[in-house]
Amino acid sequence: MKLKKLAVLTLAAAMAAGTLVGCASNKKTETTGAEQKTEAAETTTAKAGDTAEAKGQIYYLNFKPEVADIWVELAGKYTEETGVPMKVQTAAAGTYEQTLKSEVAKKEPPTLFQINGPIGYKSWAKYCKDLKDSTIYSHLVDKDMAVKDGDGVYGIPYVVEGYGIIYNDAIMKKYFALDGAKAKSMEEINNFASLKAVAEDMQARKADLGIEGVFASTSFAPGEDWRWQTHLANLPVYYEYKDDNVSDKDVLDFKYADNYKNIFDLYINNSCTDPKMVGAKTVEDSMAEFALGKVAMVQNGNWGWGQVSGVDGNTVKEEDVKFLPIYTGVNGEEKQGLCIGTENFFSINSQAKEEDQQASLDFLEWLFTSNTGKDYVTNKLGFIAPFDTFAANEKPTDPLAKEIDRYMNNKDLYSVSWNFTSFPSQTFKDNFGASLLEYAQGGKDWKAVVDDMKADWANEKAMTK
Amino acid sequence: MQKSMKRYFPIFVLPTLAAFTVAFLYPFIIGIYLSFTEFTTVKDASWVGISNYKKIFMDRNFINALIFTVKFTIVSVVSINTLGFLLAYVLTRGIKGTNLFRTVFFMPNLIGGIVLGYVWQLLLNGILARFGVTLSFSAKYGFWGLVILMNWQLIGYMMIIYIAGLQNVPGEMIEAARIDGATRFQILKQIMIPMVMPSFTICLFLTLTNSFKLFDQNLALTAGGPGRQTSMLALDIYSTFYGRVGWEGVGQAKATVFFLMVAVISLTQLTLTRRKEVEN
């Protein structure tokens, strides 16, 4: 009797337990459109013999969710033009490494994927094909941008991106018109001292300007702190590398820590959000605040344009969206431009089938040299492509991309390169982000933040050797 | 009956066994093997012996996660079972609308962990905002947030199991006790609780293991923040696996150790509570 009851209960429990664990979210967005097309292509070619086999097929694992649909469309277009089956899958934001790890182990692994720089290359070295003889590498304008190891070239950058402080020109003009404004035009803001004076004065007169704060929220929700622990942290690291003339260090002195503190304090103290509340803010929140005209400035890159223009009730006009370099109080920073670089490098899976590797190379060539391909790259994907096949007029037309172009073509200014690709590990970034959050909330003093950051850097570099 | 059961046993057991082998046994064995290797994907493993196990304690994260998990498990097992049993007790007294209450209390259990985590994050942050802080302000907010979430989700489920147990207590027994002059509390303590001991076994097992290996809710509610302070064991394994180049094997080694811990704890609990069960 007891046994039977127990058995019934256990069964019921087991069933219900299924509901408890049955919540694994689907992290990948399947691109059925492309797959259907792929299947269709396969069936048509199957009749004609094994020609499709010889041509190979392409499977691209996409990193950028914001352009996922465009990639699917592009894959369909490519299959239509060449008959080569192509499948695209997109990893959800922040899950690229996870998705890639499981996809690569499958029977039909991605043939084309991306690595995020030298650190990413370290973990995928066994899978990266040497591309030094490829056509696409020969078209790369700046060969130093590629990920290299010895003589080989293993990652080819496909997009140039830039970040800085995005500002709303309409609000700035309103401020400049006020009595006793600390500056009369954007040209006068060319170092940290002038930025600080203007920002603090604007914060004090926010009611007159109709804003809630100068800077958008310093987002620190879980997984939303990359603008600070990666992008902003790039500046002190850049200057330190530059002083020592190196591109990587096992032990970081973090000697520009005070400069980091300058700008970080300015962000959190002149914001629309109380520093104690930043732990719940996301990047999207910050971009929305900017789009709705609640704040005048937000630190982000040109990829953020979509987030600004896509917000409902957006009050920012396209011509008012401009970039300002991130000034931190370093000597000679009047000549500093935006932070320009990339962490998107194409790699070809060296362990995929030979013909699939070739098919992927052919696809890259098509994408960056043919007219259809180039049209997609500049106008739909919105990429500033670093290849010599793109003429001066073949550039994206969104306001932030134009701003990047303006800064890059200004010969008086120097760009800050992206050195965060040499940051030791995700764990390092996460820990630094957590420290910054505690500092913002008032729970940690700055010296501890700096000490922990340096210790962590050395530690993580040693552990991932 | 018995004979034919025996004859068809292999046929009936085969589908489940096959599924179990493919989806559980095989990955499990591969997992143990991988904990002794260094790898990027499961296909390119190279043997490194026990060095992964030595690395487990190189950062303090694992120990911190263990301490946090143990604290969380103790608090939530006690609170979930107490509240679940109380609800079951109340809802077997024949109050009006019993069925409605039972349904309502059971419903949270049907929502997945990730969704629950995000919903509660919004709710709790909304409440904490009145005091000018957020969930990630300090580890104790994250801890109590998780406890509240877990209680809300599991109480109803445990309640159903306790109700099933309570309904099986023979009415004559209680009536006899009442005639003998037993108070309500005495009936509860001397008759009901011993009689529903099998339910306790199951509920304790479920709450213990579910709390100990909690992942989704942890990931969605706090993601370990601030820092790694509210990271439980499963989440720590996950972040070890993805957090550093070349540390995948260490994550796997942590997972093996984790498995051993869960097995030992739950088996101990099962033997202990089984001993208290009585025949009716």
UniProtKB/TrEMBL annotation, chain A:
Record's protein name: ABC transporter substrate-binding protein
InterPro entries: Bact_solute-bd_prot1, SBP
Family assignment from sequence similarity: Belongs to the bacterial solute-binding protein 1 family.
Record keyword Protein biosynthesis present: no
Record-linked PANTHER family: ARABINOSE-BINDING PROTEIN-RELATED (PTHR43649), OSMOPROTECTIVE COMPOUNDS-BINDING PROTEIN GGTB (PTHR43649:SF29)
Keywords for the protein's UniProt record, in alphabetical order: Signal, Transport
Record lineage: Bacteria, Bacillati, Bacillota, Clostridia, Lachnospirales
Signal peptide, first to last residue: 1-24
UniProtKB/TrEMBL annotation, chain B:
GO annotation terms (biological process): transmembrane transport
Stretches assigned to the ABC transmembrane type-1 domain: 66-269
Organism superkingdom: Bacteria
One matching Pfam family: BPD_transp_1
Alphabetized UniProt keyword annotations: Cell membrane, Membrane, Transmembrane, Transmembrane helix, Transport
Family: Belongs to the binding-protein-dependent transport system permease family.
Protein name as it appears in the record: ABC transporter permease
Spans through the membrane: 12-36, 62-91, 103-123, 143-166, 187-208, 255-272
Keyword check for Transport: yes
Location (main, coarse): membrane
Membrane topology classification: Multi-pass membrane protein
Species: Lacrimispora celerecrescens
Lineage: Bacteria, Bacillati, Bacillota, Clostridia, Lachnospirales
InterPro entries, alphabetized: ABC_transporter_permease, MetI-like, MetI-like_sf
PROSITE patterns, alphabetized: ABC_TM1 (PS50928)
GO cellular component: plasma membrane
